[in-house]
Design goal:
Length: 345
């Protein structure tokens, strides 16, 4: 999986245990799927997952890991072997992210260009296309030179950046006992009016940091639209234009309330950080409109960029971060079981 701020990798076992305890083999609507780590954990546990995310790279990850099943492995392996043999051919990706910026070594950028052009030229069904795009995304992630976000690149090359880019078949999962997963790519407020299930899992953005800006290279890799780019990080121009109320202190409350109101499920499980725009007490009040609320809280290590300190544009350390961990709250709304009866408190 790609490096990702906000990933719930450590919390997946807890989230899966809570949702399975509420209803085994259920249909779960995951409205903010991100890297699909939670969705993958739920799929492994037998749940049918309906994933949604507005960012195209996230929807592609979900199509690979949630919608596609391991029956596609042999077909994908043949394509991966073929793509790994392609020589590099520099293009937009190399120019933008290896020459105008330094996210990748130019030789690896040229390989990305050649492989991505080949995927674009092939007539592939959506699932196989997503599997190959994820294979390329993960290969590039293994040779990047960042701390995990694409807001900036390292002053000196990361050791991994010198390794040659090599595709692998993603770790596809067996189809869940509850049924085949599905994926949409919509604003969460729209998806909440369209998707139905037994349980809704919500992990919305919680502050001003936009995932499109943090992972703009993956969005460009998937869209392959050669957008106008700006700044040292060569971000997509639509990073400036796209606004979301979930990244706004004045807007997040009403946006989340609309999602909570409209989503057609019996139970809600909501993950939210204590670094977010909505406090624990405010979240309980908001969610209480759907039913009784139970809360689990766990300490969670902050992302690697927060561990190494604060640096100025010249690369000199100028300060230390205020804290190295935060509290993640898991709100369970409308469940007939108590969390203590599931062995959780």
């Amino acid at each position: 999986m790609i490096k990702y701020i906000g990933s719930k990798r450590v919390l997946v076992p807890l989230i899966s245990r809570v949702i399975t305890g509420i209803r085994p083999d259920s249909t779960v609507v995951d409205l903010f799927s991100g890297t699909s780590r939670v969705g993958m954990g739920l799929k492994r546990a037998g749940h049918r997952v309906r994933s949604n995310d507005l960012n195209r790279y996230a929807a592609t990850l979900a199509t690979c890991y949630i919608q596609a099943d391991d029956e596609r492995h042999a077909e994908a392996a043949e394509w991966v072997d073929r793509l790994n043999q392609l020589p590099g051919r520099p293009g937009y990706f190399t120019r933008t992210f290896c020459e105008e910026a330094r996210f990748f070594q130019p030789a690896n950028g040229a390989r990305v260009d050649a492989i991505r052009d080949a995927i674009e030229a092939a007539e592939l069904d959506p699932e196989l296309r997503a599997i190959l795009l994820v294979s390329l995304m993960e290969a590039a992630d293994r040779v990047d030179s960042t701390t995990g976000v694409q807001m900036a690149y390292l002053k000196k090359w990361a050791p991994r950046a010198h390794k040659p880019l090599q595709l692998r078949v993603p770790a596809l999962l067996q189809r869940a006992a509850a049924g085949k997963g599905s994926v949409t790519c919509e604003d969460a407020r729209v998806a909440a009016q369209q998707l139905t299930g037994h349980i809704g899992y919500l992990d919305p953005p919680y502050n001003q940091h936009k995932y499109l800006g943090n992972y703009h290279i993956w969005e460009t890799l998937v869209r392959w639209d050669a957008p106008e780019a700006y700044g040292k990080a060569r971000k997509r121009i639509d990073c400036r234009a796209r606004k979301s109320p979930f990244n706004s202190r004045p807007g997040i409350h009403d946006a989340l309330r609309a999602v909570v109101r409209d989503l057609d499920v019996q139970t809600l499980v909501v993950s939210f950080s204590d670094e977010g725009y909505i406090s624990r007490e405010q979240m309980v009040t908001l969610l209480s409109e759907r039913g009784p609320v139970q809360v689990l809280s766990r300490d969670h290590k902050r992302y690697v960029g927060a561990q190494i300190g604060i640096y100025n544009p010249s690369g000199n350390k100028v300060g230390a971060v205020s804290h190295l961990s935060n509290r993640e709250h898991l709100f369970v709304v409308g469940a007939s079981q108590s969390l203590s009866s599931l062995g959780l408190d």
